[in-house]
Amino acid sequence: MKNILTEIMSDCGNVNLSEQILVVTDFDKMKVAQYVNELIIQLGYKTDMVVMPTRSSHGEEPTDDISEKMMHYPVQFLITSKSLSHTAARRKATHNGSRIVSMPLITKDIIKRCLDIDYLEIKERNYHLRNIISDKKINITTPFGTDLSVKLKNTYSSDCGCFDKPGMFINLPSGEVDSGIIPEETNGVFYADCSFGEYILQEPYLQFHIRMGKIEKIDGKYSTEIIALLEKCGSKAFSVAEFGIGTNPKATITGNPLEDEKVLGTCHIGIGNDLYYGGENDVPIHIDAISSSPTIKIGSDVIIENGLHIYK
How far apart are CA 157 and CA 63, in angstroms? Predict the structure, then answer.
């Protein structure tokens, strides 16, 4: 049987058998981390797996001992219940040259369905789309009521599975083009009908009312709980951090944001920490709100229509 990590470790990561690999997990993701750890070992690599208490929110820092360990391994897999992608520990490790794969909320099912893809095809699609919309003002509408105007920064990233150079950072499953936003030119309403963090969304769908990059009001099912979650982190948690587009043809909407945000035919906004995108909003939370079937325009030019990518 094919080891699903073969292409990721060799072609995407160019990982040498002499490189020691760190696997970071928490109490709630130990089983799937052990599964990934075993797949890595089967390919002949040496690993160290460390376990910490489950964090309380996405973007919360890992324990001090694990933060220290992350400074000393060339290749790392972060398989956790709460994302470490937007933590200072991850940023320091990649700045130090570590190549990091973040897999928050990953399941065995997602691994089996979404990791066996054509990474060259994903790379070509992502870079082409990135070049079209980078540093542009776009308008997003959806059948559920989204009408959002966003000015994108030119600090676009393209998650296509490549982590073959020192300091590279990716998310698995791959398949996302994302950017920071210009706050004063991000206005309107965004409806999320797929997922938001651990919340699998139902009607009435979440509505984020945004003015100058700030969320002024949240309506819909779970809005009370979500407002309380953000308020725990302070007013900075209500800032819009990113806009992203899914590009993975094998991902499907399941209610798991790790996969939902990668689905070809979805888009999302990220809320909270924006340091990864060159911003200054250092807050210990980052959560994505995901919407299906977007129509995205640059001026009068339609580049995505009801989720279908029609740009050339």
Answer: 28
d(CA 218, CA 259): 23
Q: Do 126 and 98 fall into the same domain?
A: no
Q: Could you tell me if 99 and 161 lie in one domain? A: no
Q: Residue type for 178, please?
A: D
Those residues of the chain that have pLDDT short of 50 are none
Q: Which residue has the tokens 């250092």?
A: 282
User: Could you tell me the end-to-end alpha-carbon distance of the chain, in angstroms, rounded to an integer?
Assistant: 38
**pTM recorded for the entire structure:** 0.91
Alpha carbons 15 and 233: distance in angstroms, whole number: 37
Encoded tokens for 87 = 């933590």
Query: CB of 49 within 8 A of CB of 43?
Result: no
Range of the domain at 36: 6-104
- Among 75, 72, 25, smallest CA distance to 53 is for 25
Return d(Cα 269, Cα 77) in angstroms, integer: 25
Query: Are residues 137 and 23 both part of a single domain?
Result: no
Strands of 137-141's sheet in order across: 214-219, 206-211, 187-192, 147-151, 137-141, 295-298, 301-305, 308-309
Clarify whether residues 169 and 135 are in a common domain.
yes
Q: Which of 56, 77, 104 is the last residue of a domain?
A: 104
Domain shared by 24 and 73, yes or no: yes
The CATH number assigned to the domain holding 84 equals 3.40.50
- Are 191 and 147 in contact by the 8 Å Cβ rule? The answer is no
Last residue of a domain, one of 73, 104, 135: 104
Average pLDDT of the residues of the chain: 95
pLDDT of residue 104: 94
| Helix/strand/coil for 59 | coil
CA-to-CA distance for 246 and 29, rounded, in angstroms?
Answer: 24
Are 105 and 129 within 8 A, CB to CB?
no
Q: For residue 29, tell me if it sits in a domain.
A: yes
1 part of a folded domain: no
